[in-house]
Write a structure and sequence with these properties.
The protein is α+β, with helices and mostly antiparallel strands. The chain has two helices and four strands. The structure holds zinc ion (ZN) (2 copies).
Length: 77
């Protein structure tokens, strides 16, 4: 069963936080997404730094940095 709060930022899973990006389009979800690697549930706010790969594949921001180290957001660091 999914938790009612994001396990990354601890904010409640309100409807406004459950619209995720998938490439350039948005995907509306009824609940939090679960990371495929660490199995943590996260809201759309925590997903803003990366994209959903498919309808089911999803990485949290921590695992996304490991898998996608060169997304342009690491410039100058
Ligand atoms: Zn969050
Ligand atoms: Zn993860």
């Amino acid at each position: 069963m999914q938790p009612l709060t994001c396990q990354s930022c601890r904010r409640p899973a309100e409807a406004s936080r459950l619209t995720y990006r998938r490439g350039t389009e948005c995907v509306a979800r009824e609940g939090l997404l679960q990371c495929d690697l660490c199995e943590r549930f996260a809201c759309a706010d925590c997903l803003e730094v990366y994209d959903i790969f498919s309808g089911y594949d999803f990485l949290c921001h921590i695992c996304a940095q490991i898998f996608l180290p060169a997304r342009g957001s690491q410039r100058g660091h």
